[in-house]
Amino acid sequence: MKVGIIGLTNSGKTTVFNVLTGKSAETSGYSSGSVEPNFGQAVVPDPRFYRLCELFEPKKRTPAAVDFVDVVGLVKGASRGEGLGNQFLSHIRNCDALLHVVRAFDDENVPHPDDSIDPVRDFSTINVELMLADLGAIENRIEKILKKGKVKKESQVEHDLMIRCKECLESEKPLTELTFNDEENILVRGFSFLSLKPQVVVVNVGEDSIADFGNSPLHDELQKQFAQSCLNFPENGALSGDGIAWLAGKLEMEIMELPQTERESFLADYGISDTARDKIIRASYAVLDQFYFFTVGPDEVRAWTVKRNSTAVECASAIHSDIARGFIRAEVIKYEDMVALETMKKLKEKGKFLLEGKEYRPQDGDILHFRFNV
């Protein structure tokens, strides 16, 4: 899965990218005119994976991971060619979700493109640009459909859908406001509309605000603004319950450079108990409503990503289409039972080794092995 990091110029996007991925991308490059994106990957922090690796001591370890793409910073009017214009679009259209960095820190050495700090305004600016970019794509598509005058019968559904989307955007509402039937969903997915992509919003605060930001008036105002935006925020508790995560980007980078033994006391000095990094990575994963199951053994312990509520046979297809085609049974072990009993022999003796059919719906963290014949 791929997450695009977006935000205004000088919002701290690349700093957040470095924090999440452990990379050392140049943080001043985009404001000087660079348009090439930064690519990196972050492992989803999960102690269950590491515990399974301890039990099986595999030759290969493959945890769940998120790919991040840090694209050029936007300015107001980007959809009309302002700043670096729409050069970022091709990179984030292929992303599954967006991580939206909003600036709330003040630093005279890092000028804000609008000369003042206003996170609510900046949040709105970016989402308006995303909607305008979608509106431009929709108007182009409608023009092509109408190129020969009358709408052809086979294009009528698409034409009507594009008109509905256009009216939604012209009323200054994102496409997440609309509902689509199955046929429309297939058509919409083909356009990769930006205002339909789920978002995780990260507020980049100053070091002096990090401890108390969750109880601040600014947090409450942002919460209200985000709730009105109709965006697809995660609702699984990965964030503060309202789609808002926050971090002090420079502080997090300093923490990453410290030995593990010194991090706890460093955090305590700032009145915080943990870094925001792991929380944001988990939220980026969860916002797409996905989960993962494990396969285990001496050769490899691996986390496999699938859509939530997938059936056993759909999980099998994540590994290989042949396994799904020749599916017989899924051997299922609950993670809690695995770590409690530790061996297959004990699991079978206690009746914790389950056999399930195609329609079984595995849960997050289940350990699966598939019986199949092709």
From TrEMBL:
One of its GO terms (molecular function) is ATP hydrolysis activity. ATP binds at N10, S11, G12, K13, T14, T15. One of its GO terms (cellular component) is cytoplasm. Signal peptide: none annotated. Residues 1-204 form the OBG-type G domain. Its cofactor is Mg(2+). Residues 289-372 form the TGS domain. Keywords: ATP-binding, Magnesium, Metal-binding, Nucleotide-binding. Belongs to the TRAFAC class OBG-HflX-like GTPase superfamily. OBG GTPase family. YchF/OLA1 subfamily. ATPase that binds to both the 70S ribosome and the 50S ribosomal subunit in a nucleotide-independent manner. This is Ribosome-binding ATPase YchF. The lineage of its organism: Bacteria, Candidatus Walliibacteriota.
